[in-house]
Structure formats: C-alpha cells, structure tokens
Amino acid sequence: MALHAAVTLVRESEIPLTSQIQRFIKKEVAEGILHPGTRLPSSRRLADDLGVSRSVVVEAYGQLVAEGYLEAVQGAGTQVVRHLDPAAAPPVASLLDDGHAGGRDGRDPAVRWDLRPGGGNVPAFPRREWLAAYQRALNTADPSALDYPPLAGDPRLRLELARYLGRMCGVRSTPGQVMVTAGFAQALGLLTAVLPQLGITALAIENPGHPGQRRFVHESGLRPVPLPVDGEGLDVGALAASGARAVLVTPAHQFPTGATLSARRREALVRWAHEADGLIIEDDYDRGLWYERGTGRPLALQRLAPDHVVYAGTASKSMAPGLRLGWLAAPVALLDRLQRVRARQDLGTDVLTQLAFAEFLRGGAYDRHLRRLGALCRARHDALREAVHRHLPGAAVTGRAAGLHAYVTLPRHTDEAALVAGALRRSVLLSGAAAHHARPGEGAPALVVGHAHLPRSGAQQAVRELAAVLRGT
Predict the structure, then answer these.
(1) Last residue within a domain, chosen from 348, 365, 382
(2) What is the pLDDT of residues 206-243, one digit of tens each?
(3) Secondary structure letter of residue 97 according to DSSP
C-alpha cells in the first residue's frame, strides 16, 4: 500500500541520515505520536518520499526492529509494535452519561447482562436497507451535493423531514423551519447558546430526568431548574411558580418514568407558554416506538403552539446513535438565531448521510424499519414485564409501553444502591433511579432498564439474578 509517513530529515546535519530516521521514529513512538499497530510505508516507498537511498531506510528499520520499536509482519509490512501501552485517555463526561455504574469511556465492567438504557441497548441496524439508500444517494448526487451543506441541512432532507413530521407526528412546519443536527446533543447545545440572547438564563427540566442533560445545561451556562414529575408528567403548576421562561420536556414518553403528559397538563403547558411568553423544547426522543395496542402515541405538543415550541427528534433510538442524526422544527425567527450560532461552531452535518436518510424516508424504508423494530421491541418489553411480575414480587413495570427502556418500581423498603451493587457482582449492570434525580434521597427506589437488546430468555435470566440479590442468596 502507498502509505505516507511524516519523517523530518536535516541534510546539512553531521548526523547520518539512517540515524536521523531512527531517532525521529523512536521519539515519535516514545511520545505516543506513532501509536501501537501503526503501519509504516515500505522501505522503498519511504526512501522515494524522502529522496534517499533505499538502503538507508532498510538499515534504519532493521535497527528499530532490533531495539523493539518496530516489527515486521508478514503480509502487513512494518509497523509499530502492538504491545506498547498507549497513554490512557481521561474519561470525558458527555450528554450520554446517565449516572449508571461504569462509564462511556471504554472501561465499563465486563458483564453478562447490561441492562442500562443507553449505549449497547440498540437493536439490529437495518444494514441492507441503509446500504441501498446510501448507494442511491451516491448515484444521484451531483457535484454540488458534495460541497459544504446549508447550515440548516440539505434541502432534500429538510423536505422529507417536514413531510414525515407532519404525517407521523402532527408537527406544523415547513422545510424552511427544519434544521438537521448532529443528534439531539448538538440541538440542545445550539438552543442553550441562543436562550441567553432571548433574556433567558434558566431552563426548567424534568425531575427525575436525564442526568447527562442536567449537567449539560449547567455547563452551558444556564441554571437548570428541576421540576417534579408524576403519573401525568411534568407538574406545570411548579413550572409557573418557578419563574423560568423555558422548559425541556419529554411529553410523549417521559424519560425515565415513561409517563405521558396528560391532556389537561398539555393544555396547561401551552397556556403557560402564551402567558409567560415562554419557550418549550419538546424532546420526542423515541418517536415511532410505541407498543400499546389500541392507543396511538400522542401527537406532537408543538402542533398546539408552534410559535412557542421547538420540536426535536433523533434517529439515535430508532436507527443508531452512531449516525449522529437529529432534527429540529422551530419558529423561523428562532431558526435564524440557531443558524447564526451554528455558523460559529461548524459547517453543517455530513451531506451523504443526509441524502441517504432522505432516500430512506422517501422510499418508505424508515416506516418499514419502524414496524419491524416496533414488533421486536414490543415482544422484548412484554418479556421484561412478565419476568418482573414472575420473579420480583412487589416490583412493577410502570409508564407507557414504548421506547427502548422501562421504569421498574421496587418495593418501598428496597435498598436501591445495594441492589445495583449486588447485581453487578452477579454480572448484571444496572442504572438505578436515584442517579436520575436532581438531589440525593429523592424519589422511591426504582430501576431504569434497557430492554431492546434482550431476548426473552435473557430478560428472564437477568431478572432472576436480581431476585437472587434481593433474597440475599
């Protein structure tokens, strides 16, 4: 392979060229710039690039192999030895972190059953259908499609998203009101940067809620205002009393409790927005994943007050978080502000992924995928509910049957922290409800369980392990 490597030589130096190559590569390896397993150019290629005799490079490589810096691998050429330990990168908190045991830095404990709601709790990705959509996008993309995209997103995807959001969610929008983002994390980052421009310095959030979002809001310079959640969703009376003029809610399927904002609370929230000139950020994070037969998922809150609501959606739950694909439907004036903020941060979202998703939407592949995914996750949600009912007396799966997680309430006397710790010793990794509350000691004991990746037998086995912990066996 015609590999390249940046090697610096000083031809006027008294140090022989072979020694210069040796010293340079040794220093790069020692400082972690050349990583273990990095392949280097062939001696012929490097000699040609440096304008030196091949024998100079051959001798340098040979000495570095002898000293243990490089190794010659049959069929793979010369590379930095793999057994060198790279410096461990410090863990970085992100919007994904949800207060569970372990972290998102690649050092989670090895367990048999990972029941956390994020990360690996993702069903199979529709590889074949996505590849076909991507291929169509590549085949039909003209040269202009490979240029920097508009900050709000490629017009073709914005059109398809406006159609989809109206048809699927009841969102009132035009393509000109839609922005494509790198997932909800970027959308929230843009919004927290714009809110101070509107004179808003506090953002009300649900409690319990997503701890990563709570920290994200705080670190963005806004004051998070936790508000209680009950079986009807967000307490709108507490919102009105808080003095906050912006609120982040998950009205269709509250995270993590699974509650749906009741009709009377929806009306009250919209009334608050009009009276306080407030802004509602509607996080519809798992749209399309609704398993209750005979009742449809509530339509978007945005349709009731399009001038006061920013609707946010994402493909992270329905497709894969690695796509980094999300969208906003916002009032035009606010969208203009979002674009100005974004212009200082990046130059738009990956165009080819946008075009592929537009094809995925246009051809109906996304709807077909959601139907398959819904059937699969409904069965897995039912299996978890059955396992909890059979093996955990006094516990219950509460909230709506939807999404990729379930909220499992525990008997009042349960020591949630001890259960989480004991489960880990039995190779079950859990997220307790305590981490989702703003203050220690709030709320009754509960678990936030990711179920989308669990086969029926897996749900039974994992819950039996929890039962054994509770029995003290």
Answers:
(1) 365
(2) 999 999 999 999 999 999 999 999 999 999 999 999 99
(3) -
